[in-house]
Design a protein that fits this description.
Layout: H1 2-16, H2 18-21, H3 23-34, H4 39-64, H5 70-94, H6 97-125, H7 131-139, H8 141-159, H9 162-186, H10 202-206, H11 209-227, H12 238-246, H13 249-270, H14 272-278, H15 285-321, H16 328-350, H17 357-384, H18 391-407, H19 409-421, H20 436-440, H21 442-453, H22 457-492
Helix pairs in contact: 1-6, 1-8, 1-9, 3-4, 4-6, 4-18, 4-19, 5-6, 5-9, 6-7, 6-18, 7-15, 7-17, 8-9, 8-15, 13-17, 13-18, 13-19, 13-22, 14-15, 15-16, 15-17, 16-17, 16-22, 19-21
C-alpha cells in the first residue's frame, strides 16, 4: 500500500515538472496564442494556476476527511487529476492558453485530496521509532518526481510534443485510481489516531501528550453537540479547526518558514533549465533540463532520507538523555530545519560568485541537497506540531499559506525579474535562451537567482523561532514531569 501511494505521489510531482522541463516549447505556445512580450510571466501563471486549484480544494477535502473514508476522497481527487491531464493535453489542439489554465487548476484541485489525507495516514500507521523515515521516504517523491518530470517533459516535448506528456501520465494513472477505490473497501473509517496496522509500540505511536489533550477536546465538543440534538458525525467548522491548529506557535512558525522555502524552490525550479542555458552552461534545452533534473533528483534522493534519519537519530538521543521529553520529535525536526536551511541559504547565495560549469553545478547540488534535508525535516515537523485529529486540516491550511505566499507569487516574481534583469533571454522562438543576447545578460540571470535565494532568510527566522519555542515547551513539560515523579516518590516514602 505504501509503495502504491508513493508512486502516485511521484506521478503528482512528475506532472508539476512538465511545464518547467519544457519552458521553451510552452513559451512558443504562449507566443502563438497570446502574442505577448512577456511569455515568462504567463509561464509563471500556469504554475500558479495549479496552486490556486490546490489551495481552494485542500480545506474542502480536509473537512470531508472527518466523516468520509480518506481513500474514497483520494480516489475522487485523482480521478479529477486524470481528467485534468487530458484537458491540458487537449489545449494544444484547441490552441487555447485558457483551456491549459483550466486543466492546471483542476489538476491542483484533484491533487489536494491526496496531499491532505495521505501523510497523516502514514504518520499514524508507521512505527514510532521509524515514522520520520517513512514520512521522509514518502516525501522523497517531491524531488524525484520533479526531476523525472523535467527529463520526461523535455524528451517528450522535443520529440512528439508536450501534449503527449499530459496524455501519457493520464493513461498511466488510471489503474492507480482503481486501486485507491479498492483501498477504500479494505480500510474502514476510524477515529483520529486509530491504526489500520498493528505497531511494535502502540501507545507511543498513537498520540503524544499534546495530541491526546486536543483530541479529547474535539471529542468532548462532538459529544456536547450530540446532546444539543446535532449529528455527532458532523465535522468542526473551518473557523473552529483553523483556530485549533493556529493555537500552536510551532505550527505557525513552520508554516511560514515552509512558505519561504517553497517560494525559493519553485522560483528556481520553474526557470532552472533557462538559467543554465542563459549562463552558457549548456547548449540545448534537453541537456540543460536533463542536468537540472539529475541534480535535483540525486540531491533529493539523498537529502530526504538523510533528513528523516537525522530527525529520528536526534529524537532518539534526546529521549535517551531526557526520558521525560514530550516533544523530542518536534525539537529535533526544528533543529534540522534551522541548520540545513541556513546552509542552503549560504550556498545558493554563493552561486552568484561562481564561474565554470563544474563549480557552478557543484554549488547548486550542495545547496539543493541541504534544502531537501530542510524540506524533509519541515514536512515531518509539520506533522508533529499539530494534533492527530487535526492533521489533515493542518496540512490543508499549510498548503494554502505555503502556496499563496510561495508557489503562487514565486513563479510570477521570478518570471518578472528574469524578463527585466535579463531581457536578452526573452524572444519569440525556441532559441531565445541560447542566443548571444541572452549570454550577454548572464549577470542579470545571476542577479535574478541571487534575489530569489535571499528569500531563504525568512526560513532562518521562522525555523529559529520554531526551534526556540519547541525547546521552551519541551523544557516545561520535562520540568512538570520531573516534579510529578518526585512528588509521587515522596508520597510513596
Amino acid at each position: 500500500y505504501f509503495l502504491a501511494l508513493t508512486i502516485i505521489n511521484v506521478m503528482n510531482f512528475v506532472d508539476r515538472g512538465i511545464i518547467p522541463g519544457a519552458t521553451d516549447e510552452f513559451t512558443s505556445f504562449i507566443d502563438r496564442t497570446l502574442h505577448t512580450d512577456t511569455p515568462s510571466l504567463y509561464i509563471g501563471l500556469l504554475q500558479s494556476s495549479f496552486i490556486i486549484g490546490l489551495c481552494i480544494a485542500s480545506p474542502i477535502f480536509a473537512t470531508l476527511s472527518h466523516r468520509t473514508n480518506i481513500f474514497t476522497l483520494i480516489g475522487y481527487g485523482m480521478s479529477c487529476w486524470t481528467v485534468a491531464a487530458f484537458i491540458s493535453g487537449l489545449a494544444f489542439f484547441m490552441k487555447s492558453y485558457e483551456v491549459l489554465v483550466i486543466g492546471r487548476v483542476l489538476s491542483g484541485a484533484g491533487e489536494a485530496a491526496f496531499m491532505c489525507c495521505t501523510a497523516p495516514w502514514i504518520a499514524t500507521n508507521a512505527d514510532a521509532d521509524s515514522k520520520s523515515r517513512w514520512l521522509a521516504t514518502f516525501y522523497l517523491a517531491m524531488p524525484v518526481g520533479t526531476a523525472l518530470g523535467y527529463i520526461y517533459s523535455s524528451i517528450i516535448a522535443t520529440s512528439i510534443g508536450w501534449k503527449w506528456a499530459f496524455f501519457i501520465e493520464a493513461i498511466y494513472m488510471i489503474p492507480f485510481v482503481a486501486f485507491l477505490f479498492a483501498m477504500a473497501y479494505r480500510f474502514p473509517v476510524l477515529k483520529p489516531g486509530e491504526r489500520h496496522f498493528p505497531a511494535k509500540d502502540y501507545e507511543d505511536n498513537l498520540l503524544n501528550s499534546t495530541d491526546k489533550t486536543l483530541s479529547e477536546q474535539q471529542f468532548n465538543g462532538n459529544q456536547n453537540t450530540e446532546e444539543n440534538g446535532t449529528d455527532q458525525s458532523s465535522s468542526p467548522s473551518l473557523w473552529e479547526e483553523t483556530r485549533l491548529v493556529c493555537a500552536h506557535p510551532c505550527y505557525v512558525y513552520i508554516t511560514f518558514g515552509y512558505a519561504a522555502l517553497t517560494a525559493v524552490l519553485i522560483g528556481l525550479a520553474t526557470f532552472g533549465s533557462s538559467f543554465f542555458l542563459g549562463l552558457g552552461l549548456f547548449e540545448s534545452e534537453v541537456a540543460a533540463s536533463t542536468a537540472f533534473g539529475i541534480i535535483v533528483s540525486i540531491a533529493g534522493i539523498i537529502g530526504f532520507p538523510v533528513g528523516g534519519v537525522l530527525v529520528d537519530f536526534l529524537s532518539a538521543q534526546r529521549k535517551k538523555n531526557h526520558p521525560e521529553s514530550a516533544e523530542a520529535d518536534l525539537v529535533s525536526s526544528s533543529l534540522v530545519m534551522l541548520v540545513s536551511g541556513t546552509i542552503g541559504l549560504v550556498l545558493y547565495c554563493s552561486f552568484y560568485f561562481t564561474r565554470g560549469i563544474v563549480l557552478a553545478l557543484g554549488v547548486i547540488f550542495l545547496a539543493t541537497f541541504a534544502i531537501f534535508i530542510c524540506n524533509a525535516a519541515t514536512s515531518i515537523g509539520l506533522i508533529y506540531s499539530i494534533p492527530v485529529a487535526n492533521r489533515s486540516f493542518g496540512i490543508a491550511f499549510n498548503v494554502i499559506v505555503q502556496h499563496m505566499l510561495g508557489d503562487v507569487p514565486s513563479p510570477l516574481v521570478a518570471g518578472y525579474l528574469k524578463d527585466h534583469l535579463a531581457n536578452g533571454c526573452v524572444g519569440d522562438d525556441d532559441k531565445a535562451s541560447t542566443s548571444d543576447a541572452c549570454r550577454d545578460d548572464a549577470p542579470g540571470i545571476r542577479l535574478t537567482m541571487l534575489l530569489i535565494s535571499l528569500w531563504l532568510l525568512w526560513c532562518t527566522v521562522f525555523y529559529g523561532a520554531a526551534y526556540v519555542h519547541a525547546l521552551s515547551i519541551d523544557f516545561k513539560k520535562d520540568k512538570t514531569a520531573v516534579t510529578t515523579e518526585s512528588t509521587s516518590r515522596e508520597l510513596s516514602a
